[in-house]
Amino acid sequence: MTSTAAIAGSSPRPTHPDEARAAQLRAANINPRTGLATDYLNHFNEAIMLLEMIPDMPECASDFLEWRPLSYAEHFTASSFRARDLAIEAYQTANAEIRAEFDQLTNNMTRILLEVGAAMRQLQQDKNRVALAEQAIVWVKPLVMLTAGVINGTAEADVDSIMASA
Question: Which domain of life does this protein belong to (predicted)?
């Protein structure tokens, strides 16, 4: 095989290390611009799903009360995400400003969910738990959307329209 044939038969490769890194991150479903993966939002979407079940099945409140917060690294360490080590490393090396915004949003969601859980434990009546669950959804869903914007590099999206859709 000639060198020309070898080149023609090979798959295209990025020519710059940054391009190679971006391709690696994209292949792992990690945004190469932000270094963040939307898979982490599944952790919060699970809590929202449990909250959404409470109005129809108040006994599901106990399932929500079992939800525990996980850091980004803890989530990926415990997950079956195929590139979990890469996701953790990319997060650790992400732009400090992007990561700070991301961390602030996820910390706010965690705080809301923990406070809702604490309040729910104090409530005796299902109707009060239902009302609290419904309110928590209104608080957390827009934050998930804002966090997705940070992950996807579109944080400058119109916040008012995101909040209006909640």
Answer: Bacteria
| Sign of the torsion angle spanned by Cα atoms 47, 48, 49, 52 | positive
Q: Which residues of 34-69 are buried (b: 16+ CB within 10 A; e: fewer)?
A: bbbbebbbebbeebbebbbbbbeebebbebbeebeb
CA distance 135 to 149: 22
pLDDT tens for each residue of 40-82? 999 999 999 999 999 999 999 999 999 999 999 999 999 999 9
Name the token pair of 103. Answer: 């961390």
Q: Is 135 a member of any domain?
A: yes
Residue 16, pLDDT score: 52
In a domain? residue 101: yes
- Do the Cβ atoms of 142 and 163 come closer than 8 Å? yes
Q: Is residue 1 part of a domain?
A: no
